[in-house]
Design goal:
The structure holds 2 protein chains of 2 kinds. By secondary structure, chain A is of the alpha+beta class. Helix content of chain A is 23%, strand content 24%. In chain A, strand 3 and strand 4 (80-83) form a beta hairpin. By secondary structure, chain B is α+β, with helices and mostly antiparallel strands. Chain B has a single domain, classed as Alpha-Beta Plaits (2-Layer Sandwich). Helix content of chain B is 28%, strand content 19%. The chains are: A alpha+beta, B alpha+beta. The A-B interface holds A 68-71, 74-75, 79-83, 86, 99, 101-104, 114-115, 117, 120, 123-127, 129-131, 133-134, 138 and B 17, 20, 32-34, 36, 39-42, 55, 67-71, 92, 96-101, 103-105, 108-110, 112-113, 115, 118.
Amino acid sequence: MEKASEKMAKVRVFRFDPLKDEEPHYQTYDVPLKYENMTALGLLLHIYENLDPSLAFMYSCCRLSEQGRCGVCDMFIGGEGAQACTYQVKEGEILLEPPRIIGYPVIKDLITRQFSLVDREKFFVPRTNALHRFRKTYEKIKGRE
Amino acid sequence: MKWQFVVCDPSKCVGCEICELACSISKEKSLNNLYSRIHTVHLENVGEPISSMSITCHHCKDPVCVKVCPREALSQDERTGVITVNTDFEAKQSCHVPCGWCMASCEFGALILNPKFSMAAVCDLCPDDRVDGEPPCVRACPKDALSLATTDEVVKKTESKTSKDILEEHEKAREDSKTFYEKFGYMPMPPTKVIKKK
């Protein structure tokens, strides 16, 4: 009973593989909090290395890059937007989801498709009336530069 | 300061988009609708224009865009409700990645991605650029459709007419204006002349 004093976190992860599953589902993992100031990305890495290698997520932290800069590991944590590499985990339940926003379809698990700036404007109908009208002139100006 | 925002009266608005230009001039010093924080929406029914109105940030209570932002770049003032974007590129809690989640999550489509810097931008009611307490878009409106109002004032106004009512009215008017042939598919008999005898 040595490990009883170790803090545990219940991680509830959104799972969806469009090639196999018909509907998305949630899977729970019990992950020990190994060290202080553990981040949500640390939990995901622990799950990937030890518990379930089929989990798909993205990150690009390395020794040279600064944490919280690239925005690759953006996701919904507990229903609110956050970066997995900077979000500090506490004891208890944690909910990890891809962004639940229209226009960002899920590729697999926690990976969503990120649109380019030009593609993105097509999804937002209210404010695009003016944008579409001025798109051609905008491209012309860019071409001159 | 009250909890106010710019409201448009759709019965007065013509859809001239002058407010957009006024906004882009005061904010970015350029005459380009891409930079404006206010946007005109043109309602159409089967290709026929019905009405138009302009939309800006409504400064909602408990706003979605602030919740959604993964970098905590957006924040709301507790007194006035104005939402500000942290544009300091070097700070960690700033809008340095153009993910566009705030734009996509907004119900009104009020936020824009500034194409110059690829950062989010919202209406902040122009506190420095006011004349007689009116921001430049309200001043520029030629039909006096725009005004500053609180939420309670807007609710009283909008209770009388919603966009759904306007659509239904337009459809009624369309059906009424149809000819007899379009409605029933055959031509009516011409009315017979009755000659009165004295």
